[in-house]
Amino acid sequence: MTKTTPQTNRRIVLASRPTGAPTADNFRLEEVAVPALEEGQLLLRGQWLSLDPYMRGRMSDAPSYAPPVEIGGVMTGGVVSRVEASRHPEFKEGDLVMAYTGWQEYAVSDGTGVNKLPAGFAHPSHALGVLGMPGYTAYAGLIDIGQPRPGETVVVAAATGAVGSLVGQIAKLRGCHVVGIAGGAQKCEAAVKELGFDACIDHRAADFPEQLKAACPRGIDVYFENVGGAVLDAVFPLLNIHARVPVCGLIAHYNGGTLATDSAAILRRTLTQRMRVQGFIIFDYYVNRPDLHAAFQQEVGNWLKQGKLHYREDVVQGLENAPEAFMGLLQGKNFGKLVVKLD
Amino acid sequence: MTKTTPQTNRRIVLASRPTGAPTADNFRLEEVAVPALEEGQLLLRGQWLSLDPYMRGRMSDAPSYAPPVEIGGVMTGGVVSRVEASRHPEFKEGDLVMAYTGWQEYAVSDGTGVNKLPAGFAHPSHALGVLGMPGYTAYAGLIDIGQPRPGETVVVAAATGAVGSLVGQIAKLRGCHVVGIAGGAQKCEAAVKELGFDACIDHRAADFPEQLKAACPRGIDVYFENVGGAVLDAVFPLLNIHARVPVCGLIAHYNGGTLATDSAAILRRTLTQRMRVQGFIIFDYYVNRPDLHAAFQQEVGNWLKQGKLHYREDVVQGLENAPEAFMGLLQGKNFGKLVVKLD
Questions:
Q1: What's the confidence (pLDDT) of residue B134?
Q2: What is the mean pLDDT of chain A?
Q3: What is the pLDDT of residues B49-62, one digit of tens each?
Q4: Where is the Enoyl reductase (ER) domain (chains A, B) (predicted)?
Q5: Is the dihedral of CA A100, A104, A105, A108 positive or negative?
Q6: CA dihedral A263, A267, A268, A270 (to 10 degrees)
Q7: Would an 8 Å CB–CB cutoff place B280 in contact with chain A?
Q8: What CATH class is the domain B133-282?
Q9: CATH 3.90.180.10 segments of chain A
Q10: What is the spatial distance between Cα B73 and Cα B33, in angstroms, rounded to a whole number?
């Protein structure tokens, strides 16, 4: 054996639970020894760590669809890794895999939940975005719940984000009028020029509700909800009869935050417009809808190969910068899918 | 011709629009001459007038799914009538028909929207309730949106009302655990003893939320929403993962009224529980789902004949008493489907 086990794993653990927006104090960088492999185990060297809004939920111990990260536990996260060493029959050194090994550089695994990337995967980090969880989130929420028809108006916020950028592009490919919402002129310009949205409105503009209304002259048929807050307040009065609102995320409320529209008004409009408001967690679609997942992989994979989908990554270098990048993500500072290069 | 045209029609018109709860001032009883029939027309003598919560919406000029009643116009309403005279080829004297001829004793019609009751219809007033719009509302909302599965817990408010009483009984027939909510001990007792609900909770009780929770030990899978307000506040924390909430009405809000649950909390729970909240207007189901309407007529008609469904009417005598009865309906004073005997 010429190969030696690396000595040190760097990892980021939850030091304390945030109240409101997370701060640097809530995270702690630790260095620990990597244990020697036992029979049936494999050692993963992280290459790309995905940072996603859902992680804010894991930092809280409020009831949720998934258990929280324990205090002192490694932060949850999807990682694309290279198999560094293997004593597991199904994996060999050099395999590229995706697994939820968390915010760390190395992980020892028994293979559970470790998925090899398909051969010919052009960019390993795509497994964390357009061809991974955010991509399937966009696809399932839009297609299964949103059910957009050609000519309908689809609105999505965080228009240049990992999910929003795909929602809008898929809706365009389905023949819809697509209006994005984003923070700042640069993102709005990219949504129109790079992603092909019909319009993109800056939610920071003083007359944002009026601009949104003007961009949706036939109202809104599908609102892919991933932010909540003031964006939802502006969208709600524009929703058409039989509008569909897949609720994918509420990033404006993860750190607190309120709505101007009161709940009775939301229900009244849901009734009079015969709207469908439906929350979803992509995990359910992985478990219950393998048919839809296969359709997603084929359709989005083909669009990507054919150059019909633009996919932008916002790459941060080094594990130690993950907390700051994650805090920025919750404020919309990223531009494209946020990933951390680990090696 | 021995037959003479009746001289006088009594009708109730909208005198003014209510702010908050309607008052007697908002209605006016008028007497007008019945016009002579022209060729192609028929004269309808009202027998049963249906009073339903949706009529509160027609009294307002706020945007809605249907145009408001004009000031001075006859109040909207479904009526079972006897054809008194006919110069229309498809109708003959003595036919029993259902039509939206409004709060009046006589109406002249050209036949549009006039539907003959099927032969063998045991009780003509059933066409306004269990076999009519309220029945189809209960059936379509529960079956198409609620999608109850055996063993699931279904909760419905206004449990002894026209819609709620059917929702609960149909859910029982589908094998569900059914919990009603009603105002007062008498109605709650009737829901359990007459209608066969597993439990019925009095929303006026000080510990109503705790009682509701105790009656739903496995949480709530389907909440058929027809009231809103404090009932919804108590229901919301109990909704299970993948709960379905058909929103049929919001009677607690028709005259104003707020919710304690804020809208961000509603959306958050919709997301974390992956709930489906869907408004519906039964009119759409008449237009778009003739298949479901046929299934409703067959299934509910059979249950009724077989004595599997209990149906209670709250009968008010005389058109002049319709306004007071309607005002009481909005306060839950009725006990069963509210109808006015016109002749």
A1: 94
A2: 93
A3: 999 988 998 999 87
A4: 23-340
A5: negative
A6: 140
A7: yes
A8: alpha beta
A9: 8-128+313-341
A10: 16
CB contact under 8 A, B65 and A272: yes
Residue partners of B141: CB distance under 8 A and separation at least 6: B167, B224, B246, B248, B280, B282
CATH class of B8-128+312-341: alpha beta
The verdict on a CB contact (< 8 Å) between A270 and B278 is yes
Tell me: the pLDDT tens digits for A307-331? 999 998 999 999 999 999 999 999 8
| Among the partner residues B262, B271, B278, nearest to A250 by beta-carbon distance | B271
* Position B85, amino acid: A
With contacts defined as CB-CB under 8 Å, which chain B residues touch A262? Answer: 258-259, 262-263
Q: Which of B65, B241, B266 sits opposite A266 (nearest CB)?
A: B266
Query: Residue A296 belongs to what H/E stretch?
Result: helix A290-305
Residue B126 has pLDDT above 50, yes or no: yes
CA distance B223 to B264: 19
From-to residues of CATH 3.90.180.10 in chain B: 8-128+312-341
Residue extent(s) of CATH 3.40.50.720 domains in chain A? 133-282
pLDDT at B4 over 70: no
Assess whether pLDDT exceeds 50 at residue B2: no
Chain B residue whose CA is closest to A284: B274
How confident is the model over A209-264, as pLDDT tens digits? 999 999 999 999 999 999 888 899 999 999 999 999 999 988 777 767 778 888 88
- A60 near B CB under 8 A: no
Where residue A2 falls among pLDDT bands split at 50, 70, 90?
very low
From 3.40.190.10, 3.90.180.10, 3.90.550.10, 1.20.1080.10, which CATH number describes the A8-128+313-341 domain? Answer: 3.90.180.10
